[in-house]
């Protein structure tokens, strides 16, 4: 007997709690990948859950306000719903913002998908005095309506019961006024091969190219008639009719309690958080606190991992020293354990950083950062929306660069692509933690780390301003962003977010860093018989050849030159390269570097790693989003900027007496 299977698609507006519900239903049984046939910045999340012997295969569709196929998110959602035809579509609706959310609901009904409405965030609606009659709402929409709280298990059993019971398309498709409905009925009768959704979309956007000539003619004549009668475009006609229908739903199914005391709580907080004078200092204070917490809490766990890898290297060296050739012992201890261990030791910092960033994102604060930065971004011909890819750059430059495609103009997209890599991605974090920990006192480590991240933002803005004044002139387009209400993040949600990035970090350690470490070890031992990593070795000759380029920056030694060169593959390999080249484990690497760097030269190196071109994967993404010529120019620009700023930092520090 085959197992029963139900494919469930989760659809809803951004910030409606859709992904929280996905995490609640699937737990850790998730898969993250790309949408088939598309190279996109939007991840596809699939998960499985078993209830009463039935397997639910759950797909988390991109958050979208409508299905008009204007944005990438809308295109993906419509294509999936039309081609994959899931058994059930669960439309998550924000009860506190019902009018806006129901627009997508009506379009899903037009699409004719089997649907259940999950009314979420009711606690916020309750606090604002919004009272929703779910039975009346269900009757008017013609689909089941279940009151839930995605953050916990409220309504979860009832939602699962409805899913297992099967869903059907709405029994009450929305009525868009007598005039519009009369023509829809005529077209549905004349064009039986086309659904109501197809006909409405044809009336809005024009007949499809593959439509028969007679059908095209009928559609176009109806479009002209409606445009003449209403005096506006068919797109505006249907938008007005939908909102008119929603107004009727709200009038009958929603009431308001006059004595609500919690109304506009988010607005009261925003008076301070997005204040013209207080907003940016608060943002800086929050980011400083994040880095100070990362250092304070993660250090004991780092020490534990260092001890484990150090003991492992000592054990292997002691056990194999007498029975194996020196090169084999060196390969295992210096190459494998020393190289990879010097990177893995920073896993606690990675997990903690993303845990804190997830809290800031899920609480609704990061959306406010875009608003805070809007005033500054306008100075360089951009707007706050461009800062969103830059925020993503704190995680990884690849999705950050791809996220720039959501901007309206080519100039804004390209300028944002050029600025985004200056944000310090998580791959650079091990380099900074290593150098900050080795050269700066514990009480100022968070401040030093914060200064590096802040420098990335400042340099990005300066570069953007220069480009906007010279080769990329233009005005910014209008800026609209939703301000979600402040919410308490779920423990499960932030943990899953952190573990996803931690897993990515470990996979990178295995797929990129480990082979890079082996290559460095091999080049450091060849030709056979030379001293490991000496100037006579292949790696020593390469390092010696390029080291003079970095001498004015304060770290013109072959090991550092090779490390930044290998960092072009992945920034984590900078640390792994040091560990392999110096032939020491992670517990000794900091003290070893302290013998060849000063605090000023170490900070100069951090600045260069921050600003020079990102990893190979990120540069290939820049090429994919623009062109080879643009990507090559961007790479040169970033390396030149990195050298100049590092030079200013080091030479300026010497002049000020910090050398």
From TrEMBL:
User: What Pfam families is this protein classified in?
Assistant: FeoB_C, FeoB_Cyto, FeoB_N, Gate
Mind telling me which residue stretches traverse the membrane in this protein? 277-298, 327-360, 415-441, 447-467, 509-526, 538-555, 634-658
Q: Where does this one sit in the cell?
A: Cell membrane
Family matches, as PROSITE patterns = G_FEOB
UniProt xrefs under SUPFAM superfamilies: P-loop containing nucleoside triphosphate hydrolases
Q: Which InterPro entries has this protein been placed in?
A: Fe2_transport_prot-B, Fe2_transport_prot_B_C, FeoB_Cyto, FeoB_GTPase, G_FEOB_dom, Gate_dom, P-loop_NTPase
What keywords are annotated for this sequence in UniProt?
Cell membrane, GTP-binding, Ion transport, Iron, Iron transport, Membrane, Nucleotide-binding, Transmembrane, Transmembrane helix, Transport
Keyword Transit peptide: yes or no? no
Q: How does it sit in the membrane?
A: Multi-pass membrane protein
Coarse class of the protein's main subcellular location: membrane
Q: Which protein are we looking at?
A: Ferrous iron transport protein B
Glycoprotein recorded as keyword = no
Q: Which domain of life is it from?
A: Archaea
Domain FeoB-type G, chain residue ranges per copy: 5-169
Q: Which organism is it from?
A: Methanocorpusculum petauri
